# Entry
Amino acid sequence: MKTIDKFILKSYIGPMILTFFIVSFIFLMNFLWRYIDMLVGKGLAFSVILELMWYATAINIPMSIPLATLLAAIMTMGNLGENNELLAMKSAGISLPRIMAPLIVLVIFISIGSFFASNNLVPYAWKQMNMLIYDIDRQKQTIEFKDGTFFNGIDDMSIRVGHQDKNTGLLTEVLIYDTRNTGRDGTMSTTIADSGYIRLSDDKKYLLVKLYNGERYETTRNYQWYNDSQLTHQTFEVQEAVIGLKGFDFSRTDNENFSRSAQAQSITRLDKNIDSLDMVVARNMVRSYEPLFRNNLLRYDPTLMGMLDSVVVERPERKPWPVYEQIADLPITQQKNIVSSALNRARNSKNLINYEESSYKIDLNELYRSQIEWHRKVSLPVSVMIFFLIGAPLGAIIRKGGLGMPVVVSVLFFVIYYIISMSGEKMARDGISTAFEGMWLSSFILLPIALYLIYKSTNDSNLFNMDWYRIQFSKLKDKINARKQKRNNRYEH
# Structure
């Protein structure tokens, strides 16, 4: 490897790593912003939150790598241009494609790595992340009492406190409604205490209650409570209770439903799913539409055929077809009956189609999702390469390094890419276009832009040179003024 190749690679690898972590951090903050309400107030261990953040970072790799590649390419070539190093290389007879050659080789390896990350790491991370979110969502919040407000976070219990000391946790004016045994033996209890402590056990499986100076009212009712009911009243100085709880301790589950999703499958499994879903959808469509055509649309109508036969008998010169010419010879009343019958049959066919579509719509949507994920994995390496081919010549043209202009241009191109990708994916998901057309639409649009930028940068274009535009504008303005002056002089003479 030549020294200049090492220099260029060293100039690119640093910004690439930096921008990848910056972009990943931005996507991670967006994820946390979406789920912050679910995470706060549940007493989750820091390791659980870190695990969730790791999974969220992993599933954003297909979005982070293309943007990081684009930004790093613009920064690297912009720094070389701003420091006149790119100009020195060109002066030495080294063309821009030759300068980009080691970076192209590196980006090819990055593209291949992005495919394996999307095919192996992302499905696993997506499954684990959704299972973890499901477990966190099932977990109830920690017990937090507000003065004068009922706390209903415990099943079949309502607790109200007058005040809670923030330092000691002592509760005053405690009121507890307990209906846990209502369904078993009809027992309901109400407890009033001057003060006490209510907290969760360390493993969050029990509610520890200790009350001072209170009264307890217990009512027992059966199905004939209006005739037979019992009321028990007792006072106490100290009362302690350990109540079993569910949902406050964080427990992990292995829900296989997430494994069946298209996002949690590799390209090999997607291939098998697409083949099987194709057959299922085709079989369901045949089963749905065959009765429609046979029994509704193409059904033999003896009344109509009798009317048409009468026309042929009365006017032998008329051929059996076309039918609309024969219908035109029928009386107006019969024509109205035929049109009304056709409209009713069309409405019935439409209703039948809508009903039958619902029977295989789930399989059809799953087929679309599987096809979309398959093309997403395949198109990602191509997108990474296209973003590099946009960023490198663009940086050579802009000749600005750092995080100023490169960030603005990168975000602009990435927003265009994101909008096109989301639009294409939506069309593919709705069946408006094929998955190939929808998922490759952004690549088809951005590739000509990349080739155009390579051509302009190779020929030292002034595409983003504002001084060049000012000079051209001044020249155009001088020409317009000269023409006006010449025309004015001609009118004066």
Remarks:
- The chain has four domains: 3-139+375-458, 150-244, 265-374, 462-493.
- DSSP finds 13 helices and seven strands in the chain.
- The beta strands are 150-151, 157-160, 163-164, 171-178, 187-200, 206-221, 229-244.
- The radius of gyration is 37 Å.
